Amino acid sequence: MKDIQIGHRLIGPIHKPFIIAEMSGNHNQSLDTALAIVEAAAQAGVDALKLQTYTADTMTIDIDSGDFWIDDPNSLWKGTSLYKLYQEAYTPWEWHEPIFKRCRELGIIPFSTPFDETAVDFLEQLNVDCYKIASFENTDIELIRYVASKGKPMIISTGMASIAELDETVRAAREAGCKDLVLLKCTSTYPASPENTNLSTLPHLRDLFRCQVGVSDHTMGIGVSVGSVALGASVIEKHFTLSRAAGGVDAAFSMEPAEMSALVVETDRVSKSLGQIHYGPTEAEKVSLKHRRSLYVIKDLKQGDILTKDNIKSIRPGAGLPTKNLELVLGRKVTKDVARGTPMTWDIL
């Protein structure tokens, strides 16, 4: 599987996981808060910060009833219309440039999720390094094709999509010009439960579509994301906020700075630990071989004495004969005087 380059970072199995902090609407309509989120994300060690580029009018129409009203009792946003939700959650387009500028100053990669062609055109002016497609848009083939035509890496969340739908999406992206693709296993509930995450899909997703894979993780905590690395995730996206207590449309399932920092550290540890199939001592372990058990003389012996379980024993360290030879040496005579603490060797028998 070839590496993908996004900005200054290489993404692939031999590289540390690419960690994306998703700001979403957690800025609560404050540019100062948005910039503070950028700084906290950089300090936590993430590789990239992602926005969402839309307006309420590019997402839906202003109707407060029927299909446009959120009445799902399990929804965080129950009791409002889609239009009002997007009005509250959107990131003003004029904020993108200062947010992107601050990201680049701090060494993290800024990019965004466009939700229509006007957003793509706008983001092209900001020289984004890649594009993200949200789960709810992964069947919007016209948008997929338009983004792919820009020739930049695409990260696509797979929430709710069947294999047939993903096949259509991936074919459309590749045929329209996308050469570098990452598919993110995603469960489109907010928050998501570990039981509905199905990380075992990751190797199958990677092999089926021959691309890099990762997770867009809406579960609480870092466990699911850390575990995903062991199954092949090379990209991890988590929603990010300065404080869940501060509120915000996505704050309830977003990571706080200390959690994000822990995620960066622990996913890197898992990535480094995977290595290759290996048996026997590693180079670092070879020095420890001397502390294995082996056969030692545990009483002073005179020439001609017979070895018994009273005067020879399996103990640490490991300079004597391997313990598997105990039955072979019992009952044999020593050829010379042997001091207590001498490792058993064939030449003294």
UniProtKB/TrEMBL annotation:
Segments forming domain AFP-like: 294-349
Top-level taxon: Bacteria
Coiled coil: none
InterPro entries per UniProt: AFP_Neu5c_C_sf, Aldolase_TIM, PseI-like, PseI/NeuA/B-like_N, Pseudaminic_synth_PseI, SAF, SAF_AFP_Neu5Ac, SAF_PseI/NeuA/NeuB
Keywords from the named record: Transferase
GO molecular function, one term: N-acylneuraminate-9-phosphate synthase activity
First-level EC class: transferase
One Gene Ontology term from the biological process aspect of the record: carbohydrate biosynthetic process
Database matches in SUPFAM superfamilies: AFP III-like domain, Aldolase
Its EC number(s): 2.5.1.97
Classification via NCBIfam families: PseI (TIGR03586)
Name this polypeptide is given: Pseudaminic acid synthase
Organism of this sequence: Paenibacillus whitsoniae
